[in-house]
Q: What sequence folds into this?
DNA sequence: ATACATGCAAACAATTTGCATATTA
DNA sequence: TAATATGCAAATTGTTTGCATGTAT
């Protein structure tokens, strides 16, 4: 799912095209990963100083219902990203910037019958860490901190 | 970790042995799986009609700090179970009763370098479904429902 | 006796809802 | 215009905190 598909789906279902909706979807397109309600509010408050959390929550929940977005929990925070429709896969998730990268490996394929008595209905496999850019950033700020600590 | 180890650890760290603490730990021992604050309150309100959520939350958070319990998110609900100390492993989690069963397979072992640019710091692998008992229960109540629906 | 534990009430944060108003189709 | 979207304020839920009191060591 992406912004354009989402806008088409919204129209098809009789929901209206508003600037805020478009901008929220735009954010997800730019981010390419997970965003929380708070991150959305922060990102949009320049364009819409009075934007309210109700609107953000209502739209997130609408988008979720329409399967435009999917929701996960990251570090105790509820976060959303575009729903992945094509095929089943998993993600590398950067703990600093929230960007995700798809990996095509699914551990369940090899584990079909681990326990014959347990009826499997779903699974979650997520890999956490730091993307290349954030590793750079962290190294940089760490060096800075170390220097500051010398004196 | 289990109840007795936990009680010993509490004493060793200078925390007191109270009936409520013991009963909370007992619940985790009986359950053998995940429990939420609400489930604990429900289970203990016969023995302690006035038990407050503050006490439960304070104890859960203490237990977590002492590594007696570990926390996860299950279906948007925060749940706890005894911390697994011995070795790294994953769980089959029953969506009905919350019981967990350890599996000794870890998908990360085979995936060490999926993406050389991404620095992996952790992962989550959980398998959801229904344990044998709950499959029975669900089948039973489903049959009952169907019969009720006939007339 | 002293430190830790608990209950109460209040504070908080995240999210949801009712209602009046504004906006899109 | 008719239906949906939004903001506001208030309600709800889950969780945390300050303070006075109770209890284990």
A:
């Amino acid at each position: 799912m992406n912004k354009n598909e989402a806008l088409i789906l919204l129209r098809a279902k009789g929901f209206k095209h508003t600037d805020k909706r478009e901008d929220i979807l735009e954010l997800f397109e730019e981010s390419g990963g997970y965003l929380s309600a708070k991150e959305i509010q922060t990102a949009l408050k320049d364009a819409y100083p009075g934007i309210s959390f109700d609107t953000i929550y209502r739209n997130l929940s609408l988008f979720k219902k329409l399967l435009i977005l999917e929701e996960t929990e990251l570090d105790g925070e509820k976060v959303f990203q575009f729903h992945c429709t094509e095929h089943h896969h998993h993600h590398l998730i950067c703990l600093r910037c929230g960007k995700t990268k798809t990996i095509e490996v699914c551990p369940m394929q090899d584990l079909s019958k681990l326990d014959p008595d347990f009826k499997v209905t779903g699974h979650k496999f997520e890999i956490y860490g730091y993307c290349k850019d954030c590793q750079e950033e962290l190294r940089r700020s760490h060096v800075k901190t170390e220097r500051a600590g010398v004196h």
Summary: The CA atoms of residues 33 and 99 of chain B lie 4 Å apart.
